[in-house]
Amino acid sequence: MEKQFNIAPLSGGYMITSIVGFLISAFYVYPSSAKWGFALVLFFTLMFVAAMISMTYAPTDFQLKIK
């Protein structure tokens, strides 16, 4: 029996936050503090990956069900 996963659709703001957070962490935080910079870059990278998975596997008619 195959298990079905429900992928929650994430907003576009979530993806923009991950991109902006990655850029700020990579260019401003990392030069000051390598440990914090690496941690934040990793965090925002994982956010971006989650947004991409959500965009790829989320149901296409989810927005229609909301209304």
Biggest sheet details? none
Distance between the termini: 33 Å
Query: Could you estimate the helical fraction of the residues in percent?
Result: over 70%
What is the count of β-strands? 0
Structural class: mainly alpha
Overall spatial form: elongated
Flag low-confidence runs.
Answer: none
What fraction of the residues are assigned to beta strands by DSSP? under 5%
Computed CA radius of gyration, to the nearest angstrom: 16 Å
The quaternary organization reads as single chain
Order of helices and strands: HHH
Number of alpha- plus pi-helical segments: 3
Whole-number mean pLDDT: 86
Question: What report would you give on this structure?
Answer:
The protein is mainly α and 67 residues long. It is 75% helix and 0% strand. The protein has helices at residues 12-32, 34-57, 62-66. Helix 1 (12-32) runs antiparallel to helix 2 (34-57). The chain starts with 11 loop residues before the first helix and ends with a helix. The relative contact order is 0.20. The model has no long low-confidence stretch (mean pLDDT 86).
How would the blueprint of this fold be written?
Elements: H1 12-32, H2 34-57, H3 62-66
Helix pairs in contact: 1-2
